[in-house]
Design brief:
alpha+beta, Uridine Diphospho-n-acetylenolpyruvylglucosamine Reductase, domain 2, Enolase-like, domain 1, 5-stranded antiparallel sheet, 4-stranded antiparallel sheet, flavoprotein, EC 1.3.7.9, FAD
Length: 332
């Protein structure tokens, strides 16, 4: 790890100004940033610590919009009884995302901006990584292992998988992120925050230099109360998803009036399965319709040699999550 300067501004404007400087990186909980610095993937000239922006630590669940400050800790939000009651999928996506030690220091804002776990991105011994070294190629697609890679939203330049869990609960329920930077404050639909790799895998979000995520906002809808986050992984204690699904359902009698489905562990960005949702609206929620929704969710998947298993697994996870919600609502 090479030398770098360090600052801890107390005002959002000062933090944004410092973060716009060439070679600067923002740090909050540090659970991703420090890790990447230690393994040599990034080497910033300056770290801008935003933990002094204490106004960004609060959150509120009551009312018609949930609001979460970007510096709220994962563990604090996941364990809050009000969150658990109002939005189970959000709580579950947080406590299933990391070990207790990490959740105690990791922030919501940092979590949604975490970098891929692609082994070729994180191991600098591999020169071929278009995300880390633009134009160098993709080791995964050039004879490498692809069991951890994306089958949705990838490109010929990159099939790195977005690794987060919390993001699936956000994209499924129409979240927005508020950011602050040189141009003032703006609100970005969460579905537009992350960028599919295309020909420029090094560009991961639409954030401008110096922009800081300050708040995450979600409109409250009935399907939030009947929601869950189901995660299939190699080990139960702490691992990234092989396939996961955040789902929520609202019923009108015996038929589905609203449904939300987002996929994790399988795509290059947080992924909402809108076609699968459309297949369920106006239908009864049964094992048959849930499995059909799971199948539809992966209709456009592009099979890779090492990660073809994710198609069947992902479909099962979607169906399982939907039936889990039905069970919680008292259905058979």
């Amino acid at each position: 790890m090479r030398s770098f300067s360090y600052s801890s501004p107390g005002q959002i404007g000062d933090a944004s100004d410092a973060a716009r400087e060439s070679g600067a990186q923002i740090i909050a909980g540090g659970t991703t940033m420090v890790d990447l610095m230690k393994i040599g993937v990034i080497a910033p000239d300056a770290l801008v610590d935003i933990n002094g922006l204490s106004d960004l630590e609060g959150y509120a669940v009551a009312g018609d919009r949930m609001r979460f400050g970007a510096l709220a800790k994962m563990s604090t939000v996941a364990d809050d009884p009000a969150v658990i009651d109002a939005f189970p999928a959000l709580s579950e996506s947080l406590w299933k995302a990391a070990s207790p030690q990490l959740r105690n220091v990791a922030t919501l804002g940092g979590n949604i901006l975490q970098r891929t776990r692609c082994p070729y991105f994180r191991d600098t011994a591999y020169a071929q990584c278009n995300k880390r070294n633009p134009g160098s190629g993709c080791a995964a697609l050039e004879g490498g292992e692809t069991n951890l890679h994306a089958i949705l939203g990838g490109s010929s330049a990159c099939v790195a998988m977005y690794p987060g869990d919390f993001a699936q609960a956000l994209i499924a329920f129409d979240a927005e992120v508020v950011v602050s930077g040189a141009g003032g404050e703006r609100t970005i639909p969460f579905s537009q925050l992350h960028v599919q790799p295309g020909d420029s895998p090094e560009v991961e979000t639409v954030l401008e230099p110096g922009e800081i995520v300050t708040e995450i906002v979600l409109p409250v809808v009935p399907a939030m109360a009947n929601s869950t986050y189901l995660k299939a992984r190699d080990r139960e204690s702490y691992a990234f998803a092989s396939a996961s699904a955040a789902v929520g359902v609202a019923m009108d009698g015996d038929t589905v009036s609203d449904v939300r489905i987002a996929l994790g562990g399988v795509a290059s960005v947080p992924w909402r399965a809108t076609d699968a949702e459309d297949s369920l609206r106006g239908q009864p929620l049964t094992e048959e319709t849930a499995r059909e929704a799971g199948r539809i969710a992966f209709e456009t998947a592009e099979e890779l040699e090492g990660s073809a298993y994710k198609i069947a697994l992902g479909a099962d996870v979607v169906a399982g999550a939907l039936m889990q919600v039905k069970s919680r609502m008292g259905g058979e």
